Fold each of these.
Amino acid sequence: MSAARGGSAAAADGVRPAVAADAVRPAAATPLALDSIGKTFGRRRVLTAATLVPAAGRVTVVLGRNGTGKSTLIRIATGQIRPDHGRILLDGEPVRRPRLHRLARRGVFHLPDEPLLARTWTLREHIDLVRRRFDAAEAARGWVERLGIGGLLDAPAGSLSSGERRRSELCLALVRSPRVLLCDEPLHSMAPIDAELLCDALREHAHAKGAAVVVTGHEAGHLLDLADDVVWMTAGTTHALGSPDHARSHHQFRREYLGELRTGAPRSGRRQS
């Protein structure tokens, strides 16, 4: 299915295509926005006109099949990949040459789907480093407790399970108190208890701290429960489905992504490589 056909079909079935970033909300409500992003790798067009406008104080979940460009869009947002066209705006102003370290100084943090911890360092050493850098002793204590990692502080990072490591990495991100948090597949391969703790922390950071939180993944059940707003990526573009209830009741989304109409129960796609 071509991008044009995909967009037309979605619009005909009631999906709202994401519109221009500066036409949606004022800059204060959308600290980071991506507008009409396109990207081609060789002959493969991954993004055609993808727009993402996450609101402050809300969790925006981005769902889509493998290869639809979710991770690419997040990496473009953080300056790790240069788009072929489109705009990145921070506080309503275009960012001409986004770079991850510059965006980080302005409160944007990317939690990638790859290990971040130094294997030989203990978790306490990691947290102490970030705590001192951001003068955030109280925040560090709070997130350590809420993410259930107090008993792991003296363990080398290399000895942690995947769920323990992911909770620890999220703790380090939240101690920084980012106003925009972009999480790429944070629930992949997580046990239910780990996923629940991660979702609770992400929800709290958005709702209590007023941060714009973006989460990608395929764990549809957990992510729809977490979301305030749902964006569906298909055929290289984005479609705003609105609330999780609206997304769950959307015929085309269920048919083409959740699979509910064919199997009788929602199913998640496999992890993007």
Amino acid sequence: METIKAIPRNNEVSYSHPPHPDHEHYDRELQRMELELARMEQVHVCKPRCCLVYDKHGQLVCKRRAPFKLSEDDFVTETGACGPKHLHGYVNAWVTSILINARCNNDGKFLTNGGDMKNITFYVTSYAAKKQGKNHNISAIMANGYTYHLDHPKPEYVDSVRDQQRLLLFRLVHCINREQELAAPMVMSYLMGWGDVYRSHTYSPIYWSSFLSALFTTFPELLQTPPWYVLLHDNQTSLIKACHRDQPPMDLPPPGETENSDAQVDGRVPEEVSALIGTL
């Protein structure tokens, strides 16, 4: 820790511009700024009522789990544990590009398809979409809006009960709306007339019977596999019947000859078909 404290502090480094890429000594200036920023932003100092809390044994411990585990290089173990390079127990790991360009404290963590990924996805989505909390005070807000409505009548609406009630509802909605956080994407969607749903793609229905037809046309060898059982779904009667591939059910037309072009086929298929479906 003494070697880190020996590095001079530059309180103005967070407010300075990053080195210009055309600078003659760009690489050296970049390393200098990274060192100064790491000294100012990434050194963890445990303080009471900040990160030091009492555990169940009555001992003061750091809720940030400092000192951190040390590692001479980035690592991934056979059990799936992973971590960044860490040479000092009280220095947070950082992402160089974020530290240089944003000039703020940051940390990097490798996320896979696990609980951490799920949690960060929900957090970012809720933050961007401005998830509304429980409105425990909504009745008080509406009461204030009603009081304002009584104190600020509209003389021109005296003869019209309908206009008075419309004005009351309008004011109550604005009282509630004023206390809410509105997501910028939602506001822009309404202003631009894009509706309640944003889609990045245009989707088209794909019918199973058409897929099988194209599949057997491309891979005729699949027809030589042992017979397999399928399910025929007739949209007109909403019946689902199990049948042998070579023996269609008595009350449904054979595949390819059905009058309903939207008839769907599904069920057990050979491994070759299952493997191809899995790649879609």
Amino acid sequence: MGFRAWLIAHRRHLAISLSGLTLAAIVVVSVNEVGIESDPSFAPGRGTAGPADRGAPAKSALRPVPHGVEGGDKVKKCSVQAAAPADIGEWKTASDFAGGEALLREASDRLSKRGSSYDRALLAFLAMVSAGNRAQMELLAKRPDCIESDDCRNQSFSAAERAGREYREALVSIALASNRGDVYGFAFSACRSIYKSPSQGPCDRLSAEQWARLEPENAIPWLYVADAANRRGDLNNRNEAMFRASIARSSDSHASAFQGLLRSQEFQDQSLEIQGALDLACGMAIFIDVPPYQEVFQYCSSNAVKDPNRHQVCDDLANMLTERSDSLVSMSIGAKLAERVGWPPEKVSALRNRKDAIMEMVSTRAPTDSWSCEGLRSYHSWTAEFLRDGELSMYRRLVEASGQSEAELARHWRERQQRRADLANSAEGDAKP
């Protein structure tokens, strides 16, 4: 019950992607790595390392959780070969998150002097999330009714912030000293999440403008620049930032950054439960903050796109989000924008079919018992695919393997959603006196 409550409390952060099902990559799995660029057993992350980031060769970052560390010397049911598929209950416990946190802390300590900024930033980012998860699970274990109380939910977020503070501040320090856009983006996202300090601190030294300078071909930092400029009433800089976003080569969330962790032998040596806790930490790290897409719709309002120049920028934004983004949520937003700027109906319909076909595949692939060992293995497998291929590529391959067209799958999804709506309306009507 505790973990279910924790998931509900995090629905804003987890269900970022359409109806919560990209979370089929977080809760129906999760995500990513702690890569070691200089070790061939780890996949290098995207982005360009500057001279200051090229440290001495580092050995594998992760080692098995030592005995004596919470979670390290426990017998884990899912790791026992004879465990029945449903022989588990709730595998995601505070001790599993603590085991993952200990693993990341130990690796971070070893790399503090010789590791690249990229490696150290990923470790700090994941350790922050793992520490926060552990703190929230500890609170929920004491207060199983926490989800019903606004005050308790706020306490859980505060507990996560306190637990992750040292890692967040370390991440910010790494980002400020690095010339890597992806590293800076990790810190920027962490500082905008529930891990943001309620008082002034190192996060205040980060800016969207600096992120965009470090990663000018990525649309995401430009959206943050536009949002900040709009809040200041600086429409000239807002317009320039939206233009830069529209011509960017990609909308890159850097989700692939974590895949080396899942491929490392050290990760495979952990119990399946600790691997699952780290999967979840990776997923939350990727989806920890949502870019300010509301700025896109405000800038490209129905009235605004009547201006030819604005219409061109918004048309380019729709192209960028549908063709050069790496997430389902950005593609879906691009499809809505495409309709607003007047793309041909058949092209808009094809985009909608693609999105709904993906939703149908995700919903039907989810395990029947999410809390079983089999469910945990399914999450872990999905995570590996997500990181290896990217979210949209993974989903498109699932659609192709189904043997059905996108239009057919989309129709199944819409029919399913209509039946759910009809049942909800019927139940609501029965409840009325």
